[in-house]
Write a structure and sequence with these properties.
112 residues; alpha+beta; Glutaredoxin; globular; Thioredoxin-like_sf; Tscrpt_reg_Spx/MgsR; Arsenate reductase family protein; Arsenate_reductase-like
Length: 112
């Protein structure tokens, strides 16, 4: 299982604490050190949809003033690659599951 995110992100911290407290093994991938490739973001978008992948409530979304821009999906994917903070965090990925954000109840139901 992989957890993608940013070390100091509150939601990422909660997710990591959830898995560590239950002794569930994962590999953490820090967006700051290893930004996702266009191929990886495209895979996420194909599985979950662009509206799930992009964090529209985040600072990066607001800073880039994306609300009123009419961007293609490809342009949005490229922005996620250039600005990984635009991606909703954490991203939890294993062979069968892909989940964005922290939701303790969902985690309890799906990862235990």
């Amino acid at each position: 299982m992989y957890i993608y995110g940013i070390v100091n992100c509150g939601s990422v911290k909660k997710a990591r604490e959830f898995f560590e407290s239950r002794q569930i093994a994962y590999e953490f991938i820090d967006f700051k050190k290893n930004p996702p490739s266009e191929e990886k973001v495209s895979q996420w978008v194909e599985k979950a949809g662009i509206d799930i992948v992009i964090n529209k409530k985040g600072t990066t979304y607001k800073k880039l003033q994306l609300k009123d821009k009419k961007l293609t999906q490809k342009e949005q994917i490229q922005l996620c690659v250039q600005n990984p903070s635009l991606i909703k965090r954490p991203v939890i990925e294993d062979k069968e599951k892909l989940f964005f954000g922290f939701d303790a109840m969902f985690y309890e139901e799906n990862f235990l």
